Structure prediction request, 258 residues.
Amino acid sequence: MSEKNNDTANNEQTALTAGGFAALANVGALNDATEDLAGLDLTFDRIKIPAGGSTAFEIPDGDSEEVNMVKEIVGVILLHHPAYAYYKDKYTGGSNPPDCGSFDGVNGTGDPGGACATCPLNQFGSGEGQSKACKNRRMIYVLMEGELFPMVLSLPTGSLKEFTKYLKRQLSKGRKLNQIVTKISLKKATNSSGIAFSQAVFTFDRVLNEEEKAAIVVMTESVKNYAANLTMSALAEGNDDAPFVDAETGEVIEPLKK
Prediction:
């Protein structure tokens, strides 16, 4: 390809990506929105993974109370962290916080509290069947293009290995998750007991350009501040309405009744 053609292709690529996630920084939209929300309890909309092996996510419509079914989520993963929750009694509804929970996967707050790694309730076999009594999820904050705020994906146990594999692949290439665009889809998986469940799949899309990276840094810090102030009730809110299957143990975790 000639130098002229290379320049044309580069210019076209820049035109395609210049707006992208950098648009946030260009208009100061985040600061304006934050001012409007001053004094209000900000929560992010949630992406739900349905039960039974469905391959479509449920996301809020944004303009109504309806939900949309989408096959693929494309965006930047700004932040992710553990979401451990233990209930002494079976959860029966509402926004009741767990008896013990953790947002760092290191220390639990509540009863029994303490170090998660050595907690008997965080060991396989402590719950029903061979499951853990303390349910391990991961909260993933995904910013989609054209949005000012991220959505939260509460990733169930059955998808944690897929996410870990994807994270390791990107880190091995020197890519941080908040510097790339990720595609998230669902595939139907079946555990050893023949129970079908929906498993999240993560694939690399592209690296952000420098202007986009600068804008995302601001967004990431804002989300970190939000996550640092999460309370135990957020763990209850993070549970999906639909059941999911623990891919390690085959345990079917029932819907939480509201």
Remarks:
- The longest strand covers residues 72-86.
- Residues 7 and 166 are 33 Å apart (CA to CA).
- Residues 1-18, 240-258 have pLDDT under 50 and may be disordered.
- Helices lie at 3-17, 23-27, 29-36, 157-172, 210-228, 233-237.
